[in-house]
Amino acid sequence: MDAIDAVRIVGNIGAHMEKDVNLIVDIEPGEVQMLIDLIEMLFDEKHKREMRLAEIKALSANKANELAAAKAAAPNAANPEAT
Question: What are phi and psi of 21, to 5 degrees?
Answer without folding.
Answer: -70, -10
